[in-house]
Write a structure and sequence with these properties.
Blueprint (H helix, E strand, L loop, with lengths): L2 H21 L3 H34 L3 H22 L6 H30 L2 H19 L4 H12 L12 H33 L1
Helix pairs in contact: 1-2, 1-4, 1-5, 2-3, 2-4, 2-5, 3-4, 3-6
The structure holds fe (ii) ion (2 copies).
Length: 204
């Protein structure tokens, strides 16, 4: 399956589950829907974090959209964890609402900024291969309970592991650095001229 189509399909499935959650009438229904959302989000995170985002970094380089997406995954996982702990207690519905809003924001950015770039950059065959790998990993994740991978991922986030690392250069940081390096190149040029003059003077 094409990687882009797979991700969009999973986004729509989670969106439909959040809508069902809003309409649910009983605590049992809300809990069952939330558990389905949680396991789908953790499995979706696994295929993006382990397969899709590394492929993005290889194809597009470390750009701001990719790094922002990775950082948002950590926040989404934290929201899943909090809602799971609060199941059917007073703040549960609000925590799920916040989770739904975060996921919606993240999906919009992913679909408008990251996915179109990958669709342009990779061939159909590459997208198919990537999608098959992701689907296989998704099915494996869905066959297991989500709590343990969720905790492991959160521990990585808290430890500041690679998925939260900052890009080497961003648009915001290159401008001052370039200005500095231009100054230092100018300084180096002046120094070289002084040395050359000094050298000529020494030869005379
Ligand atoms: Fe996604
Ligand atoms: Fe994502």
């Amino acid at each position: 399956m094409n990687a882009i189509e797979l991700l969009k399909k999973q986004h729509r499935e989670v969106d439909a589950l959040f809508k069902r959650f809003e309409k649910a009438k009983t605590d049992d229904q809300r809990e069952a829907i939330f558990l389905e959302v949680a396991s789908r989000l953790v499995a979706h995170d696994a295929i993006e974090r382990e397969i899709f985002y590394p492929a993005c970094e290889r194809a597009l380089g470390e750009n701001e959209e990719v790094m922002e997406g990775i950082a948002e995954h950590g926040l989404i996982e934290f929201s899943v964890f909090r809602a799971d702990k609060a199941k059917n207690k007073a703040p549960f519905e609000y925590l799920v609402k916040v989770l739904a809003e975060m996921v919606q924001h993240h999906v919009e950015e992913e679909e408008h900024e990251v996915l179109p770039k990958m669709e342009k950059k990779l061939s159909d065959a590459q997208l198919e291969r990537l999608g098959s790998k992701m689907l296989e990993r998704f099915e494996l994740a869905m066959s297991k309970d989500f709590h343990s991978p969720l905790r492991d991922n959160l521990m990585q986030v808290l430890a500041g592991r690679s998925k939260t690392r900052a890009p080497k250069r961003t648009a915001r940081t290159t401008a001052p650095r370039r200005a500095k390096s231009t100054r230092s190149r100018a300084g180096a040029g002046a120094q070289a001229k002084r040395s050359a003059r000094g050298g000529r003077a020494a030869r005379h």
